[in-house]
């Protein structure tokens, strides 16, 4: 197949074994080519900037920056890059977060060998990839909101607060977070205090539990 028809793919997952398996599935297809790999969200953003992929496949749960956070940033800075999420969990919250982050849907790792190639092609056609569980979730969500006249809930915290929450939950100190994000320690502490107040939490342990429930880190 001519090179012009090939889909250039960025693959981001913090488990090298998973990346290797997914790459084998993708590289076996003449129209799909993995041009870059990344082990966490920040690395994925840099790889997208330098390698110019057509499609980014992002694991939802990664250190430093989740796939959802990376997807939001890519949607903002490189809107031409199509997005597909990869996850171990069949979770409605993750599915709707993925859609709101600009992704076309997500693929469960357990059935990646069956669904991933089709998901890539569907995404590149500009269509959402909906596996059976996701279709059911969409219908439940729509009928539930329509029946009660409810809008979609707004996010409780800002993107920056979410970024800091994740790093706090991963065990980084305020100084380390400040260095990573190139902001002052004082700014980190202010965001941290805002998080505790907004979420009604007391300490780092409760922030970590919240981050696990929100899917920012794995338990």
TrEMBL record:
Q: Where 4-aspartylphosphate occurs along the chain? A: 59
Write out the entry's keywords from A to Z. Answer: DNA-binding, Phosphoprotein, Transcription, Transcription regulation
Q: Which residues form the signal peptide?
A: none
Q: Specify the domain of life of the species encoding this protein.
A: Bacteria
Outline the extent of the HTH luxR-type domain. Answer: 150-215
Q: Fetch the SUPFAM superfamilies from UniProt.
A: C-terminal effector domain of the bipartite response regulators, CheY-like
Keyword match Transmembrane: no
Query: Does this UniProt record's set of keywords contain Transcription?
Result: yes
InterPro entries according to UniProt = CheY-like_superfamily, NreC/VraR/RcsB-like_REC, Sig_transdc_resp-reg_C-effctor, Sig_transdc_resp-reg_receiver, Tscrpt_reg_LuxR_C, WalR-like
Pfam families per UniProt:
GerE (PF00196), Response_reg (PF00072)
Sequence ranges assigned to domain Response regulatory in this UniProt record: 8-124
Which protein are we looking at? Response regulator transcription factor
Biological source species = Actinomadura miaoliensis
